[in-house]
Amino acid sequence: MYQTAFFASFASLVLGQQIGTYTAEKHPSMPMQVCTAPGSCTTENTEVVLDANWRWTHIIDGYTNCYSGTAWNATACPDGATCASNCAIDGADYSSTYGITTPSSGALKLQFVTKNDNGQNVGSRVYLMAGEDKYRMFNLLNKEFTFDVDVSKLPCGLNGAVYFSEMLEDGGLRQHEGNKAGAKYGTGYCDSQCPQDIKFIDGEANVEGWGGEGGDSGTGKYGICCAEMDIWEANMDATAYTPHVCKVGEPTRCEGVDCGAGDGERYESLCDKDGCDFNSFRLGDQEFYGPEKTVDTTKPFTIVTQFATDDGTDTGNLKSIHRFYVQDGQVIPNSETVVEGVDPTNFIDEKFCEQQKTAFGDNNYYGKLGGMAAMGKSLEKMVLVLSIWDDHAVSMNWLDSTFPADADPSKPGVARGRCDPEAGLPATVEAAHPDAYVVYSNIKFGAINSTFAAN
């Protein structure tokens, strides 16, 4: 993802590390299938858990918030370690508070704006669980990952994202003494943007240097970095899939230039924030994806992503990442590139990344940090993330509009989609489309060509 999601629009939805007892934590069921060949699949009784950054945090044995508006409670949180000791994270009312529901077995619906007793919640992020207190870990090498999606109610400016993050299996419970909640309560998030709006990192509150403006939830001195594989970032009008690599091989706290947030520091970060993206519109096929296009976003469809290795084994080096769609019983190959300087192709590999970066005049930080080989190492230990979010940094223009917004859209790589740059302003999209939602369903994982019917 280009930027981390804006987390919550009311003060009580923040992260804590002790465990509260006011609301029981009950994970919604979202079973998946593991396949060895077409039609040969077994069901795993997986669940989802809400990210801790959305949750109510309060003083232990009390209702006083540890965080309000964009500020920490100075009494409870004079420093990071003390705050972690004083504050408890509670269970979540998934449906009423966050608009997270399971309309059918194996399906998950994420509502964009949900009115509730505290005001309203905006967006959400959940992780797939293998049990009550462990994330479901994936080794994606020599495998394919498949799911169904309905983006018909997801307008410009929103992002329904399905991706993998190099998080720890237990959410950092064992590694960080200050973390008492662990994966059961959705702790331990990291991604390639090295997000600094995470309230607790490595078991301590991100209190130092914390500040926020307007509707933003605030940021602190520290960020948390790790590799990320964006399987699906999309709305009705645009989509991209993007590998992001890092210098580090596990969740790593950053500060200063390592976070890459300052002027001129983006390409000095621990992680490659741009990634090597495959966006059909940006790559020259503007009729491939969208309402009544080749992949018709007014109707549900299936997304297949394959991770091919150089020797065809689960321990080989990542060679290429392939994409297929299935809609109305038809398998639709990914679009081919139509860009001067980029060989016609419909998948991501090292050559594509190098040519695309050159053609668009972009910094190939992806290649500098190890490219496909580095991505492959990270793909051995990934956690599945499903989310819906709007973008307080650049209004999702990087996905579905002109980016940078003041650039000439006729310049190669600038036009990412058909959307008006103003459509993604958070205030605009939250007011105009509070009823937006995305539905993910029918997750399958297994051997290449085992999870869908190829023709």
UniProtKB/TrEMBL annotation:
The keyword Ligase does not apply. InterPro entries: ConA-like_dom_sf, Glyco_hydro_7, Glyco_hydro_7_sf. It holds the Pfam family Glyco_hydro_7. It is an enzyme of class 3 (hydrolase). Residues 1-16 form the signal peptide. GO terms for molecular function: cellulase activity; cellulose 1,4-beta-cellobiosidase activity. Keywords: Carbohydrate metabolism, Cellulose degradation, Glycoprotein, Glycosidase, Hydrolase, Polysaccharide degradation, Signal. Its EC number is 3.2.1.-. One of its GO terms (biological process) is cellulose catabolic process. It catalyses: Endohydrolysis of (1->4)-beta-D-glucosidic linkages in cellulose, lichenin and cereal beta-D-glucans; Hydrolysis of (1->4)-beta-D-glucosidic linkages in cellulose and cellotetraose, releasing cellobiose from the non-reducing ends of the chains. Belongs to the glycosyl hydrolase 7 (cellulase C) family. This is Glucanase. It comes from Podospora australis.
